[in-house]
Amino acid sequence: MLPTLNGRIQTRIFMLVVFGGLITLVLTPMLPGDPDYRTTYLILAAVLVLGIVWELVYHVIQQFRWEKDWPTMFGLITALNEGALVWLLLDLELVPGIDYPSDGVPFWAFFIDFTVIWLVVWIWTNGPMRVPFIRWRFFGGRIV
After folding, report:
1. Which helix (H) or strand (E) is 11 found in, with range?
2. Model pLDDT for residues 7-25, shown as the tens digit of each residue
3. In this structure, what are the phi and psi dihedrals at residue 126, rounded to the nearest 5 degrees?
4. Separation of alpha carbons 94 and 42, rounded Å
5. Where do the DSSP E strands lie in the chain?
6. How much is the pTM?
7. In sequence order, which residues have a C-beta less than 8 Å from that of residue 46 and are 6 or more positions away?
């Protein structure tokens, strides 16, 4: 069974909150430019909110595909457009709640945090998660 739209959204939220939250907790003190936890978690929240919007866009695009799903590699490549949009909003200082420093949010801090979270979530979702959560696939990716 392929993950449904509802299942993909639930999985995205769960993975970003759990894995994204833990990775951000560990990585923030090591990121260049010394961003604070408030900033990194607000960026993670922006990725989460925009990711839900992206899921809706991807769902519409998938309707034009024969099997109505992405190949696994598309899930990895979507990091490019999602990361670029979040960075653009950061660069334009449009992410609410962030106290932007005079020189802006450090690009490399964003890049490292975003990339590590994306890779860990993508690898876990497309590999090991399928073993302990075998029913996840039978329920269309829905957690509940």
Report:
1. helix 5-15
2. 888 889 999 999 999 999 9
3. -95, 5
4. 12
5. none
6. 0.86
7. 86, 89, 90, 95
Residue reference for tokens 């430019």: 33
Q: Which residues contact 144 (CB under 8 A, 6 or more apart)?
A: 10
Amino acid present at 37: Y
Cα–Cα dist 31/45, whole Å: 18
Amino acid identity of residue 14, one-letter, is F
Q: Residue 110: which of 55, 33, 56 has the closest Cα?
A: 33
* CA distances for 64 relative to 34, 68, 74, 139, angstroms: 44, 7, 15, 23
Whether 51 contacts 82, CB under 8 Å: yes
Of 66, 28, 62, 60, nearest in space to 44 by CA: 28
Buried b / exposed e over 76-106, threshold 16 CB at 10 Å, is: eebbeebbebbbeebeeeebeebeeeeeebb
